[in-house]
Amino acid sequence: MSDIVIEAARLMDVLPEEDKAFAYEFIKKLVLAWDPDFTKVTAEEAKRIKDAENSGYIDSDDIDWDNIGTD
Fold first, then answer.
1. Contacts for 12 with CB less than 8 Å, ≥ 6 apart
2. What is the average per-residue pLDDT within 5-12?
3. Phi and psi (nearest 5°) for 57?
4. Which residues are CB-contacts of 23 (< 8 A; sequence separation ≥ 6)?
5. Cβ atoms of 34 and 40 closer than 8 Å
6. Region of residue 69 (left: phi > 0; alpha: psi -120 to 50; beta: else)
7. pLDDT tens, 20-52?
8. Torsion of CA 52, 42, 13, 25, to 10 degrees
9. C-alpha neighbours within 13 Å on the C-beta side of residue 62
10. 23 in Cβ contact with 12 (< 8 Å)
11. CB atoms within 10 A of CB 20
12. Per-residue pLDDT for 69 more than 80?
């Protein structure tokens, strides 16, 4: 979690419960306006995806399981 997110959580924690609920709903609306179908990735997620793609991992769908070990 980034420092700003941690600080925002600390600030929200001092609010009365009613105001916490309001702040939560406001943040949720901001996120939904930014990415309504939850398909965008953060910079950290993009890095992890790129690292995984370059890791040498082979997707099991790319393996011909019926012909393993045959030439």
1. 20, 23, 24
2. 95
3. -65, 140
4. 12, 15
5. yes
6. left
7. 999 999 999 999 998 988 889 888 999 999 998
8. -120
9. 4
10. yes
11. 13
12. no
Q: Which amino acid is at 63?
A: I
Indicate the SS3 state at residue 50. Answer: helix
> Contact 23/15 with Cβ under 8 angstroms?
yes
Q: Which residue has the tokens 């406001």?
A: 26
Token reading at 15: 């609010």
Q: In the structure encoding, which two tokens stand for residue 21, read together?
A: 């609920």
Torsion of CA 50, 52, 57, 60, to 10 degrees: -100
Which residues touch 34 (CB under 8 Å, ≥6 apart)? 40
Match 């309504």 to its residue by tokens: 36
Q: Residue 1: what residue type?
A: M
